[in-house]
Batch of 2 targets.
Target 1
Amino acid sequence: MLAKRRNIRVVPIVAILIVSLTQVIAATGAKQAVPAALTPAAVGPGYPWVAKALAGAKGPGGCQKTYNIWYVNPLPTTPDWGRSARIFKAAAPLLCYKATVTGPSKIDIPAMVSQIEDAIAAKADVIVTCSLDPNAFASVMAKARGAGIKLVNIACSAPKSQDLFLGTAFVPYGIASADTVAKLVGGSGKIGVVMTDATTPNQVAELNAFKSRLAKYPGLSIADVEYDNSDAGVAAQKISAMLTAHPDISVIWTLEGAAPGSIPSALKDAGKSPGDVKVLAIDLQKPTCLAIKDGWISATNDQVFFDASAYAAKLGIQLKQGRKVPKSIDTGIKVVTKANIPKSVC
């Protein structure tokens, strides 16, 4: 997982989407065979991963076997994870699998473990999930593998128990974020960090890489780290309180997807105007996109692993068939600012 894989250009994305959609139409036989949830307008910047999934699709008429695939999604009711679930379900007939999506309404590891148990009982061929805490998931994932089920992790890596990982490479992400923060404030300032909790492995790895990279920028330091349990309401309260306690904070870095939507209200509550505090957000939900347009958010790291759920299913089927696939795929990020907001998002 090399940092250079992150250099994904945003400017030519429209051309890429048009070409990719043409390829999908050719592969599936007819334009009407492609569900609305799988079009560039519905997916956004991560659409190339959908096109990659649908390339060579044979279903539904050409399916010799229909596989049983479960997506135990960590937050299926949120915009990005919800889109990921819709892509997974919409692609199922084309990729020859029966799709089951389940998941809690807020971060709930025991609930996800229980749902993986359900998938095992249902004799799933493949389970796609995000093992938020590898230790908490280890036993049930070992049980699944013992039953011959292939395990694909999106976003969350558990090398000892997964067959395949697709997502953002954690260390390069933290390094790239530190470089972007430095650019936003000219290499000098106090940083406030917002993350889910103190134990989510990918965020911990990203924060540690971020801290290490700050050695390159002696004028930058972290003033506070707050935890919001991926709850926008909690994030708004924590950010406002953080700015009150540390009025010298000049930039906020959010590592989880619920916080960016709360940025405008949190900054207003703290008596700030757009641009007073620079913000490097994560992902590209519509509220984040609008906040970028309005100047409340300076930039966002748009992760596109959400849009690789159908590709994860495709590779899971290949694993089930005994074919070789890469053990780890860095899906990359796109840094989005007011200058390059994709029209497909807002």
Target 2
Amino acid sequence: MSGHSKWSTIKRKKGAADVKRSALFTKLAKAIEVAARTGGDPDTNFRLKLAIQKARSANMPISSMDKAIKKGTGEDKNAAIIEEITYEGLGPGNVAVVVETLTDNKNRTVSELRNLFNKAGATFGTQVAWQFDARGILRVDKGIDPEALELAAIEAGALDIDDVSDSLEIATLPKELDKIKTALESVGYRVIEAELGLVPKQATTITDPELAKRALDFLDALDNHDDVAHIYSTLDVPDEVLNRLPHE
């Protein structure tokens, strides 16, 4: 992927940290709450373990994490019920998009997401999940010897490796994620982020700057929605095109 930027990379380059801290904590809390439904102990609930690790990386208060766990396990009887709902569609440039949401009002969420698709001239409801593979995704600090890290990842069982600025993005089989994460950490590598997600089987490359901006603005709008937990997209923009886009 040298010379190209996938949506996950573009988000980091554009500074996804612009998301308001309170909004980020709300999304992280929802993820913890839903994960805790199958058990409140992260040692036996891998999904909860990943959600907590992500919240810690964002410096979310421990009290907020504990509160979310209690909601998920049912200890908090007054908590609203959060539903997991996934939506699909085609964005500008026929970019396949899968949107995972966590919501306490599915009618509101589907209406607002449909509106975002319509505003962008996108197609809401088209089935596109078949264009993705379920994967474990690790983002690991390159350190002083990226080639050694690549070799260690391959030996541990990595399926694919992408160079992402100051880190390597490593794709694994979902069931291998924790094993490979542990293997890399045991030899001194720093895992920045670990999660289960979707990886496109084939990228949709956009070289027209105007169309690329429309697609990026659309994905940004989805990403900023309070109920959206994750966005997976086939979008890929060559760096030379990305560098020509106007900065807002």
